[in-house]
Write a structure and sequence with these properties.
177 residues; mainly beta; four-stranded antiparallel beta sheet; single chain; six-stranded mixed beta sheet
Length: 177
């Protein structure tokens, strides 16, 4: 019986021996460190947009909570190439300047949102050109009666982004100390 138990343990451990980290702690290339959190303030009186600096592109991150029916709403962190670049809260947006080329993006809920989220992080790989603007929406969805919480992260049409930004607050975020 002991020999059988040892073989079962060996068979279970064998596939994991080639992995550098467990799947539950694996991180997308765009995400920053899990322990970094942000203080977020939103301003619904201003709706700034920018023009890219010479040789740069602009990346806008929008948090859309229209289909998130619980309170409090999540704070969403946005990552670029392994570092967090900002955060939003409750129908707001932020933007950053980036160098042209290939980049890895990440959207991730900060802290506990609700018990049993279906998906609280997402990632994308993009290629940007200097002088262009790119828009990405983190759509937070949750209805306690019908579905678990989920974050869907996708590129957004520029016209739809402009419409949403005219209604959303501008987000100002700083890492917590």
């Amino acid at each position: 019986m002991k020999a059988l138990a040892a073989m079962v343990l060996f068979a279970v451990a064998l596939p994991a021996s080639g992995q550098s980290q467990p799947a539950s702690t694996a991180v997308a290339p765009g995400c920053g460190p899990a322990n970094i959190e942000f203080d977020v303030k939103t301003d619904n009186k201003q709706h700034p947009t920018a023009q890219p600096d010479a040789g740069k592109a602009l990346v806008y991150f929008l948090q859309d909570d229209a289909d998130f029916n619980s309170r409090p709403r999540p704070t969403t962190r946005f990552g670029l190439d392994g570092a967090w670049v900002g955060a939003t809260h409750s129908d707001s947006y932020v933007y950053v300047l980036v160098d042209p080329g290939e980049h890895h993006l990440c959207a991730s809920w900060q802290g506990l949102v609700v018990l049993g989220p279906k998906r609280g992080e997402a990632a994308l790989q993009i290629t940007v050109e200097a002088g262009q603007a790119y828009y990405f929406r983190a759509k937070n969805i949750e209805d306690p009666r019908t579905r678990p919480a989920e974050l869907i992260f996708r590129e957004l049409d520029p016209d739809e982004a402009q419409l949403l930004m005219s209604k959303f607050s501008f987000s100002i975020s700083n890492p917590k100390k």
